[in-house]
């Protein structure tokens, strides 16, 4: 089951992108998100595509992994495409079925919307593919530091995020294992009629939930016995150090945003 | 006690998960600093429960636990617990980090060690337990024995004064168990550690200084390993079986062949059995 | 004893972390009924978090769980919907504040059940309205898509809450009533 | 032939960059009614191998046949319900096996699924529990509020309650006290002898299974490096030890004694009793020889 999870696992190819400070990567992703929200022309989209491809290639991770990352969202993309292309009535009429008319402007903005989505999803994969969860978390805690001023402790938040990230694969595995254990004793999800499946889903969710909370209990013991005390000072294993390259990395994003904004509002 | 410091002093400790089923009753014992104690007993005799009490993870219902001179109470727990490291019976649920490396580092971060020191400890203990090649793995990608080794490494790396092992070698292969035993022996001769080890493994028991036998929630015996393994009635009552070489000697003796006691350490029969077999 | 909702212990941190992981991991199980809208049994978990640990833990666990799940599945976070998950759990967690409600010791009464359902229904629709508006204003999503989503998701979540969530909390409490278990805590 | 593996390889995450080979090119035959034990260092692929036996994992390449069910890489998964009834698997961690809130419900889960009535299921549950040495007072307990050893026993009982033809156990003796281990080995042996069950066990303590096992399989780095009887295992001890497998005392003792007295061709005496008896005879011969000589 975990096999299907592409995100949340890093692929170490040792490229330079891997060694960029996670805080820089996080900031870069936010900038990229902004850039994409502003994109509305083919030129700008082309620019963003080239930009994305350049980064994807420099991670030295096969492009098909990025494609896979976007796959789960294809339904959504089709939907966005259909809604956009049917609701915008500009340009010439290309096609009509009954009262529905497809305009060229609609088609193009529908395509742009769908492509934008694809780019967004596959590009953000760079972050997770090139950063281990620990580093990502550390980066997050760095980015969130200012929150302390409003009374939210970034360490606590990142520890919670860390636990959550670390346990998702485990809980998926556990779910799988309980399914196996039940299957091994004659209740096989795959081979049952629908109504039975529903019953089994409940008899699956309950032990998964109970099991997760039992895990929580044991994890508390384990953390306490390793000297964890809420709010006590801790040192950091992953030391983040900002270098010129990280600044450059962010600057490239700033430029992308600037150009795209310029293209939109001239 | 004159001269020797006590790591643990338990006075009439009782505990129950549910009031109607007492698990430990009136346990009184003390453990000197720097010693290696084996805690043995049948399944369900209360070993893990006692270990959790010793580690400050459960609170006694009655009695007192004094750790290195300080009573273990809610208020003092935060001072005492950092001195105690504990490896649990089930290695599966004690992972905190998302990778083996981060997991070993978790305890070190809590000790506020500088980064250089953490990195060197992680490497050092990963090497000691032969898990360097697993450092970047997620816990759910490990086999049972690998999990157990990581759990041990994570605790040893913290170098706590008191270490409690709850069946830390139960899923290790013969080879790895030998290696772990070797590590424990080293730590023992180093003298800086107090070790309490729950185990069913005869070799491990033989290597320790002292054996505390639990039966039905009370201390049934408190002896040295040799005495334990020569006392059949005691062994039986706590469902233990003596190591192979001791049973062999006993069996030979039953048949009227006298054998001097011989060490098991390197499984060498030669030094002891041959003279017997030839020089009669 | 019910711990106060503001007291932070190792247990709180871990509960939120694992709760979020659980919500995130099980959000994955679902039957799509409209784009971006699924029949997700995980909604029932929000009810459980809320009832057992209170609105604060519920909110954070729901929020983080949703963020992480979005992130893992698609790399993009739908912030509005993530906050929505948090809000839903927080509303359902209001029941935790009524003094004599204590499912861990098996104490749950009819009146609790009724207010629990009311909190849940309100929570579901408040959060959906919130997420919908958030999407329209902040993310610039097309309006008509949002309307379909809000209505269908509301009804679906409501059904899951009533069919799975409420009985789960009830069953949990009942189970604990039988073996009034003394939880050992230091 | 109950079980055959033909050139089976398995990799976790086979289709990804995270691919991790765990089994390589395994050929294996296990007859019906045999008692088979599997040994090997940790991480050598034992648990992975076992999970192929009831179709929890499917081979990445090669073919696994269990009774008449064929699981072959790249082909459609066959219907497994019947296979799972006939092959009962006890996982390495008992926590993975149990999921209900009372021991009784957990024990009855299998029998109920396979069509027993409530009454029958309860009967089977309490019978299985007594087989592993626990009394009926455990029926009402929460399986997760048991000691490590008790939980392990309950996990084993859940599989015994289903009365499978093939019983597969992954390190069932870890965390059991030594006498419970001996009892379990004995129980498995009786099931094999009296009911003709096929028993397959992974163990790190080879000694406790030695007297009962028909065939040993040794795994190393995902490969099968040995398959044969205890006597053959004893004879190949040096080779196996050279490749990193530590063997129990009883084997090294026998080998030393055998070399010393030239008993290599004999059936090895691996239990304390057998060895003592054999030594006694050696001594007698030796004494009379010496007596005669001097
Ligand atoms: N969480 C719990 N709730 C209630 N009873 C428990 C719980 N954990 C253990 N027990 C009971 O307490 C007794 C002692 O358990 P403990 O785990 O200390 O045994 P143990 O000596 O470690 O045994 P093992 O060798 O099997 O690990 C057992 O009878 C067990 O059933
Ligand atoms: N879910 C998994 N994902 C990826 N790799 C795994 C997974 N489970 C096991 N492995 C790896 O596959 C190899 C074989 O594991 P397996 O669990 O079969 O070993 P084992 O022989 O049972 O060891 P042990 O005696 O320690 O239980 C190991 O190197 C392990 O790290
Ligand atoms: Mg125990
Ligand atoms: Mg294994």
From TrEMBL, chain A:
Listed GO CC annotations: plasma membrane
Superkingdom in the source lineage: Bacteria
Keywords in alphabetical order: Membrane, Transmembrane, Transmembrane helix
Segments passing through the bilayer: 29-57, 69-87, 107-129, 247-265
Membrane protein topology class: Multi-pass membrane protein
The keyword Manganese is annotated on this UniProt entry: no
Compartments where located: Membrane
This protein's record includes keyword Membrane: yes
Designated name of the protein: Energy-coupling factor transporter transmembrane protein EcfT
Taxonomic source organism: Paenibacillus anaericanus
TrEMBL record, chain B:
Any single Gene Ontology cellular-component annotation: ATP-binding cassette (ABC) transporter complex
SMART domains according to UniProt: AAA
Localization per record: Cell membrane
Pfam families membership: ABC_tran
Protein family (similarity comment): Belongs to the ABC transporter superfamily.
Upper lineage: Bacteria, Bacillati, Bacillota, Bacilli, Bacillales
CDD domains membership: ABC_cobalt_CbiO_domain1 (cd03225)
Topological relation to the membrane, as annotated: Peripheral membrane protein
Record-linked InterPro entries: AAA+_ATPase (IPR003593), ABC_transporter-like_ATP-bd (IPR003439), ABC_transporter-like_CS (IPR017871), ABC_transpr_CbiO/EcfA_su (IPR015856), ECF_ABC_transporter_ATP-bd (IPR050095), P-loop_NTPase (IPR027417)
MF terms in GO: ATP binding; ATP hydrolysis activity; ATPase-coupled transmembrane transporter activity; cobalt ion transmembrane transporter activity
Domain ABC transporter: 8-241
Transport in keyword set: yes
Domain of life, source organism: Bacteria
The protein's name: ATP-binding cassette domain-containing protein
UniProt keyword annotations, A-Z: ATP-binding, Cell membrane, Membrane, Nucleotide-binding, Translocase, Transport
PANTHER family in the record: ENERGY-COUPLING FACTOR TRANSPORTER ATP-BINDING PROTEIN ECFA1, HEAVY METAL TRANSPORTER
Primary residence: membrane
Entry's transmembrane regions: none
TrEMBL record, chain C:
InterPro entries cross-referenced by the UniProt entry: ECF_substrate-spec-like
Transmembrane region(s): 12-31, 43-65, 77-97, 117-140, 146-173
Keyword Transmembrane helix (UniProt): yes
Keywords annotated in UniProt: Membrane, Transmembrane, Transmembrane helix
Keyword Transmembrane helix attributed: yes
GO CC terms: membrane
Top-rank lineage group of the source organism: Bacteria
Record Pfam families: ECF-ribofla_trS
Gene3D superfamilies reported for this sequence: 1.10.1760.20
Classification via NCBIfam families: PRK13661.1 (NF010182)
Protein name, as recorded: ECF-type riboflavin transporter substrate-binding protein
TrEMBL record, chain D:
Native source organism of the sequence: Paenibacillus anaericanus
InterPro entries: AAA+_ATPase, ABC_transporter-like_ATP-bd, ABC_transporter-like_CS, ABC_transpr_CbiO/EcfA_su, ECF_ABC_transporter_ATP-bd, EcfA2, P-loop_NTPase
Protein name: Energy-coupling factor transporter ATP-binding protein EcfA2
SUPFAM superfamilies, sorted: P-loop containing nucleoside triphosphate hydrolases
Membrane-topology annotation of the record: Peripheral membrane protein
Gene3D superfamilies xref list: P-loop containing nucleotide triphosphate hydrolases (3.40.50.300)
GO molecular function list: ATP binding; ATP hydrolysis activity; ATPase-coupled transmembrane transporter activity; cobalt ion transmembrane transporter activity
EC code(s) of this entry: 7.-.-.-
Pfam families named in the record: ABC_tran (PF00005)
Gene Ontology CC terms: ATP-binding cassette (ABC) transporter complex
Purpose: ATP-binding (A) component of a common energy-coupling factor (ECF) ABC-transporter complex.
Top-level taxon: Bacteria
Residue intervals of the ABC transporter domain: 3-246
